[in-house]
Amino acid sequence: WDIILSGHYDEPLPYTYFYGFGNETKKDDKKYDQNYYRTRYTSRGFTFGIARDFWKRSSFQIEAKYDNNENQEESGSTIFTENTFIGTDKVRLIEGRTSLDLDFRDHPDLPTSGTKIYAEYSNGFVTNLDYNNYGKLLILGEAYISFPSLLPITLGIRGGGGKSFGKIPFYEQFNLGQN
Fold first, then answer.
1. How much is the pTM?
2. Residues paired with 71 in a beta bridge
3. Strand order in the sheet with 58-71
4. What pairs with residue 9 in β-bridges?
5. Which residues contact 123 (CB under 8 A, 6 or more apart)?
6. φ, ψ dihedrals at 111, nearest 5°
7. What is the pLDDT of residues 150-166, one digit of tens each?
8. 44-70 residue pLDDT tens
9. Nearest CA to 114 among 59, 160, 155?
10. In sequence order, what DSSP letters do the residues of 8-58 get, joined into one string?
11. Quick one: DSSP state of residue 170?
12. Phi, psi for residue 31 in degrees, rounded to 5
């Protein structure tokens, strides 16, 4: 077993733009030029936990995390003043996370055969909002197969999905391109 210890101080948090939730969200280029979608947060936090690596590249982790996030943006005409989102003011989060990564691929970077399954569950509380509870479940999978020929061809399939409940700060929500 290994111990996980980490901390961070971000000014600003690397989450720089937020366009809203869902596929019906429209981006207005004029508002974009006026920093309507811009986010700036100061974030401080720490994480501790345990991890276990097994087989060749598989792992299991349990972590606890604390984050303290504060908005740096001046109040004005932004997406946050015109809509109600959790996380637009000061937010203190306590979160527990567990993950299982089963990796049976022949190579971690350019696999030609094998499968990988990743599952993660997070449960957290927003402590300064009456301990609102939220949870997230993420499952991802990959499969690879190669066909021997004069020029070898590898077919790879990747897929996954997530499910959440509760009132989650917008920067903790699932988003495209996160994994």
1. 0.80
2. 41
3. 2-10, 41-54, 58-71, 91-103, 114-126, 132-147, 153-166
4. 44
5. 95, 96, 97, 133, 134, 135
6. -75, 150
7. 888 999 999 999 999 98
8. 999 999 999 999 899 999 999 999 888
9. 155
10. EEESS-S--B---SSTT----HHHHHTTTTB--EEEEEEEEEEEEEETTTE
11. G
12. -70, -35
| Distance (Å, whole) CA 74 – CA 175 | 25
DSSP annotation of 74: P
β-strand partners of 145: 155
For residues 22 and 87, what is the distance between their CA atoms, to the nearest angstrom? 17
DSSP track, 126-146: ETTTTTEEEEEEEEEEEEEEE
Helix (H) or strand (E) holding 164: strand 153-166
